[in-house]
Fold this protein.
Amino acid sequence: MFEDLRDLYQEVIFDHNRNPRNFRVIENADRKVEGFNPLCGDRLTLFLTLDHDVITDASFQGSGCAISTASVSLMTGIIQGKTIAEAEKLFTTFHDMTTGKEEEIQLEAVGKLAVLAGVREFPARVKCATLAWHTLDAALNNSGNSISTE
Amino acid sequence: MTNYPIAKIRADFPILKQKIRNKDLIYLDNAASCQKPIQVIDCIGNFYKQDYANIHRGVHTLSQRATDKYEQARHTVQEFINAKSAKEIVFVRGATEAINLIAQTFGKANIAAGDEILITAMEHHSNIVPWQMLCAETGAILKVAPINQQGELIYAQFEELISAKTKLVSVVHMSNALGSINPVKQIIAAAHAKNIPVLLDGAQAIPHMSIDVQALDCDFYVFSGHKLYAPSGIGVLYGKQELLEQMPAYQGGGDMIRTVSFETSTYAGLPYKFEAGTPNIVDTVALGAAIDYLTSIGMETIAAYEHELLLYATEKAQQINGLNIIGTAKEKGAILSFTLDNIHPHDIGTMLDSVGIAIRAGHHCAMPVMDFFDVPATARASFAMYNTKAEVDVLIEAIQELINVFG
């Protein structure tokens, strides 16, 4: 019945939605930022541990739709071990992929995150995929302890 | 209902005859805004083709014709809600503007520091925020009567919250997020016993039931045209004449004045005092056409049909494992708000859209209601006069299937 949605809801997304990775609190995190999408009520808290400019640990709490849960689950995995500059660069690449600004999917750069490329066909759902990354951006730039997509 | 002219009604709504993602469109987002019959669409086109001009001051034929049609719409609304006089019908942009108008005029003139405004916990943001703004300006206090787990007003507690300080009771007639219909006659009687005026937010109620403002004895009744099969950008503020007369003017400008000099101006009488500037002429006339369309079928007939549809959908939904209906009030309009275990409403919305079903997923501009039920959002199927049991069947089948897909 839902054949048209295969690009959006790939099995990897269902998997991360059912079993989100890095779903835990980091006590004494160096950065803790809340991200909020007032449009749908999605709320997540992102925790980061930094060693100088390297992200050594990342986790999250909160609830959201399958797209936003899979996105934050994947993100918290992929940024571990990356420098702040590398994570910021990945945010830009990811953002360009999900908004369709960059037509070609930069597979080498985005890796597993490519499963989220399908949202570009669903403008109403782009923010679901990017909420995690906007929250990360705020955390890395130390710009307050909560952000909103609106 | 065997006599209900469903085929004719559906034929009157051109937008329904289309495919969405190769499937027949099933439009169940009517509580957000409903579709327009050809009678309303043609009314707009014909008015622009034949009758359009600015109203009220022109001496030429077209201006007179446009004025007549605009004022005829006022009489149509008056009869539709059984107001005593057409002077009690003020045209505004929608229910939101009507409430803001009352807050800024009646509110500022009658509500002071320490006074109380009483609402309920099931209000739409449009019946919360204007009062918060007024409270911030005046030092008045907003009181909120609680609801129970069924989404019904806890009437005893509502009554206890009416105090000597209460200056206005403002309650929703039918909740947009839950479908609950409030016991408005009881509410009005209790408030009037203490000489407190009552405003009813009828945005959701108006397309689903017959409204008689004199029988209700409410002091204000507000609604939007776009939820009543009319265009967006037009709405109605009904107010009892003596109250409207006492209220200060709202916006200043043309049409709302009697005389203007640089020293002072005098204001027009009702309802023009509240209608500054060139109004939304065409959509007002189209609102009249929408009401004519509804009355040709009959509000009681529509209400009975929709009630049957709601009961049918509710019964089917209750049979789905993992589906939770949010809002199970005994008195309820044609809204089915629900959540699914472990599936976010936004995923439900996208999945249903992919098979042609339009529902709403979100907080429905009622964040406090979501907080009360401890959900971030709900999925909401809301029914209109043109929906069918066959459409409900497709909805139910799709929900069952998406539960299977999510696993």
Observations:
- Residues 12 and 133 of chain B are 42 Å apart (CA to CA).
- Residues 61-80 of chain B form the longest helix (20 residues).
- Chain B has a mean pLDDT of 96.
- Residues 42-295 of chain B form a domain with the Aspartate Aminotransferase; domain 2 fold (CATH 3.40.640.10).
